[in-house]
Amino acid sequence: MAFLSDIEIAQACKMKPIAEIARELGIGEENLEPYGRYKAKVNPAILGDGKKKNGKLILVTAITPTPAGEGKTTTTVGLSDGLRQIGKNSVVALREPSLGPVFGIKGGAAGGGYAQVVPMEDINLHFTGDFHAIGAANNLLAAMLDNHIQQGNSLGIDPRRITWKRCVDMNDRQLRFVVDGLGGKANGTPREDGFDITVASEIMAVFCLASSITDLKERLGRIVVAYTYAGKPVTAGDLHAVGAMAALLKDAMQPNLVQTLEGTPAFVHGGPFANIAHGCNSVLATRLAMKLGDYAVTEAGFGADLGAEKFLDIKCRAAGIKPDAVVIVATVRALKMHGGMPKTSLGEENLEALGRGLPNLLRHVSNIKNVYGLPCVVAVNRFPTDTDAEVDLVIEKCRELGVNVRLSTVWAEGGKGGVELAREVVRLCEQPSDFKFSYELDQPIGAKIEAITKRIYGGDGITVLPAAQKQIDELTALGFGNLPVCIAKTQYSFSDDPTKLGAPDGFKVTVKNVKVSAGAGFVVVLTGDIMTMPGLPKSPAAERIDVDADGKITGLF
User: Fold this and answer.
1) What are the beta bridge partners of residue 191?
2) What does the alpha-carbon distance between residue 168 and residue 198 come to, in Å, rounded to a whole number?
């Protein structure tokens, strides 16, 4: 039997006009700005309408990622469709895809199979231009910083202590380290520089955490871009860049409304990576989903040790929200990889490898239940090669922890394959919970990093390199010690070593570099070898993407 590709399924979908989707949500034309027939921006001012109380918030997260895949976005979309199948008013809130992974190795981020958001080609390619606006604001700030130095440097900026980089939304390793300002005095001050991918820019984090244009401007003004010769931080506000940056971001700040293949409303807005940033869609999009739906289904990037930790410890703090239930997505295939099974053999039944990999899932479950105090369900994203014995083993081990498991077949069946999961989520949303953060803000920076390492990762503690300790001491002295921490580490392991699969213990996390994202409102902690500008693989996806004479795109999936 021939299976359709994701893009073929998406292109066969008969979408509703976006104005119809908006009307179903009660959004009037005065608050809708269409971008063509099937996507639009929504004025977040409707959040001020107090007629309806917020709906339940459901967070979808996953086990530690592997090349075998988990299907987190697919499950998020399918769950929301499943909730609609059982008569519930659900709305999805997702991140926007970055062009880097789309043209690189990971692919797009619009779901898969019969659980997708559409128009998938638009969403994966430019969409409504939000990321371009973020990149322009980032690079305007960089230009104004270098221009200030060129025009006399009245603030006394030390060119050796500039922390702000330029950015581009593309995987381009050639830009990681550059020297610019060459060509003589008229062409700038020569210095070492570099680019980040746009999703790693602090502007992206600010964009996603801001609650309004006023809050956006306040956060932009606090961004630290450099230090003076005297060691004083220099901000975007000091450079008088805030107004112009906010003007570039004004339209982008309005969340994007699209739909799933089954017509469920979906907000797709913002998209920081979870291994180098906080990994969640915008606060405004989440609040709109909660305002307009009785059930708002959202996701956090990568595994629960990264995306969910940052969603709970950073985003929930900033937005004053908390999930009513958590879904942890797992696949038998990925768990077998965590148990040491090679990717080429994953179609074979292997209960021993599955058993060795299960502790990865169980640690994530334990963290959500016992550290954060939230009700959760494991969604097993079933593949045709999974045997009943393998699925039964996952169910048995989860029930030993008192956690229910539901099979999910949304990739093949859409919302119908998510009905049982939806029913369990509705039940969980009515359960009492005692939500707690994994650390307190008044703890020292080092203590917060250690709390996450011990309580969430399962490690023994941290090793702070001398240069990083100096940065911690300096940031504490500057008054940044009470901010949340955003730990940048590999997504492939609980540890900072991507080769340590499963649920490793006895390890320490090495803290290499610590910097403040004062606008976003957190301290970034770099561990392991984290690239803020990825490179393309040997055979990038871009080589297989094309468009025909009629404008039909192929090769996105």
Assistant:
1) 180
2) 5
d(CA 386, CA 395): 13
pTM surpassing 0.90?
A: yes
What is the rounded distance in angstroms from the CA atom of residue 185 to the CA atom of residue 16?
A: 57
Q: In angstroms, rounded to a whole number, what is the distance separating the alpha carbons of residues 376 and 493?
A: 22
Question: 422: closest CA among 83, 118, 49, 43?
Answer: 83
3-state secondary structure of 229: coil
Give the C-alpha distances (Å, rounded to integers) separating 25 from 31, 84, 292, 324, 350: 12, 13, 6, 22, 47
CA-closest candidate to residue 209, choices 190, 195, 223, 224: 223
Is 356 strand, coil or helix?
helix
Helices (H), 3-71: 6-12, 18-25
Nearest to 39, CA basis, from 218, 266, 220:
266
User: pLDDT at position 246, please?
Assistant: 98
Q: Supply the residues annotated as catalytic.
A: 72, 74, 95, 106, 274, 302, 383, 411
pLDDT in tens, 140-166: 999 999 999 999 999 999 999 999 999
Give how far Cα 15 sits from Cα of 100, 118, 261, 416, Å: 27, 8, 7, 19
- What is the distance, to the nearest Å, from the Cα of residue 252 to the centroid of all Cα atoms in its chain? 18
* Residue in the block written with tokens 């926007």: 96
Q: What is the pLDDT of residues 264-318, one digit of tens each?
A: 999 999 988 888 888 999 999 999 999 999 999 999 989 999 999 999 999 999 9
Cβ atoms of 328 and 58 within 8 Å: the answer is: no
Query: Which token pair is 221?
Result: 């003004």
Q: How far is CA 335 from the centre of its chain?
A: 22
Q: In sequence order, which residues have a C-beta less than 8 Å from that of residue 355 and are 6 or more positions away?
A: 339, 393
Provide the terminal-to-terminal Cα distance of the chain, rounded to the nearest Å: 19
Q: What DSSP line would sit under 231-296, residue for residue?
A: S-EEETTTTT-HHHHHHHHTTTTSPEEEEETT--EEEE-----TTTS--B--HHHHHHHHHH-SEE
